[in-house]
Design a protein that fits this description.
single chain, about 325 residues, alpha/beta, Rossmann fold, eight-stranded mixed β-sheet, globular
Length: about 325
């Protein structure tokens, strides 16, 4: 696993693919509070997610599935039309599969859904003894799709899940029917958010220490103030409980940067849609055009008045955009 890229080795990856990491990672790693090794190893998952699953499963029909894939026990939700094309939904940092529940009802009738807790997140296993670089995560997701998702899938990834999805499509095109990148992380836009600038000063509101911190994070992720205020107290307990693990996982993305000599997202051949809320306060929407420069055949759809999580804020419009994209 390689260290932070130096910015001059792009034999395999497009030079823009690692521009954000090259710019931010060294400064963040030198200034940010480092992970606490002992607290990471002593961490116990006290998530309320199993209760949430019990409440929604009767309505959505999604069933909880679990299996060992490579070095992790993974958990996902599966359901929908058994004869429909498979759709894989991948969440972002400091999140879990439940982020997609608002969108799910609008996709169930036509598609078979696979909603994964990424390795280390949600109900999926976290292992303090293995690396969590992007290369590692892409390999784990690819192995899971190969083992548990029938046929080529429509893959939709939000935030860091979008970055994982883009790399997955570039490296494992045989698994991908189409690719949708929803406010994906990792693209260095022509402008930046306060969050992105703060990372270069070692500040990271993704690491939540209190209820106030949960409110801050939700207000950055969600433009709709009412939704942000409603979700903050619901999310706070899990975010605070996971703070040491989340700090570790964030560091891991930067310490274990992708191998610049391997295939990257620029190798993607699948039809690609880049979807972005223009009021995103985490990742600046101009990153959409960076991703389009990396994947030139991609289309871009921008939503006015929407933040980092379109599937939470505007699930009906998000589903409509996806259905139109998939029907072409």
């Amino acid at each position: 696993m390689g260290n932070v890229s130096t910015g001059n080795q792009f034999a395999g990856m497009h030079h823009l693919e690692l521009a954000f990491l090259d710019d931010v990672a060294p400064k963040y790693l030198s200034l940010a509070q480092p992970p606490h090794g002992l607290k990471i190893r002593q961490w116990k998952n006290r998530s309320a997610v199993p209760l949430i699953n019990k409440l929604h499963s009767g309505l959505s029909g999604l069933k909880r599935q679990q299996a060992t894939v490579l070095d992790h026990d993974l958990v996902w939700l599966e359901g929908g039309n058994p004869d429909g094309k498979p759709v894989v939904l991948l969440h972002g940092f400091a999140s879990n599969k439940e982020n997609w529940l608002s969108l799910v009802p609008f996709l169930l009738k036509q598609h078979r859904l696979f909603v994964l807790d990424l390795p280390g997140w949600g109900e999926s296993q976290f292992n303090a003894n293995v690396p969590y670089g992007l290369d590692d995560q892409v390999a784990r997701v690819a192995a899971w799709i190969q083992a548990h998702v029938p046929g080529r899938a429509h893959v939709v990834g939000n935030s860091v899940g979008g970055l994982v999805s883009a790399l997955l499509a570039g490296r494992h095109g045989d698994l991908i029917q189409t690719l949708c990148l929803m406010n994906p992380a990792g693209g260095k836009g022509s402008d930046h958010t306060h969050f992105e600038a703060g990372l270069k000063e070692g500040r990271n509101p993704m690491i939540v220490e209190s209820l106030a911190g949960a409110h801050t994070l939700m207000s950055l992720a969600i433009h709709n103030r009412a939704i942000a205020l409603a979700l903050a107290p619901v999310m706070a307990q899990d975010l605070i409980n996971r703070r040491h693990v989340n700090r570790h996982l964030f560091h891991q993305m930067f310490v274990n940067a992708p191998n610049p000599n391997g295939p990257g997202m620029s190798a993607t051949t699948a039809p690609t849609l880049i979807m972005w809320g223009k009021e995103d306060r985490l990742v600046h929407y101009t990153g959409a055009y960076t991703y389009q420069a990396i994947i030139p055949h991609a289309d871009v759809v921008l939503f006015d008045g929407v933040g980092h999580l379109p599937m939470v804020e505007i699930p009906i419009r998000t589903a409509k955009a996806l259905q139109e994209f998939w029907s072409v």
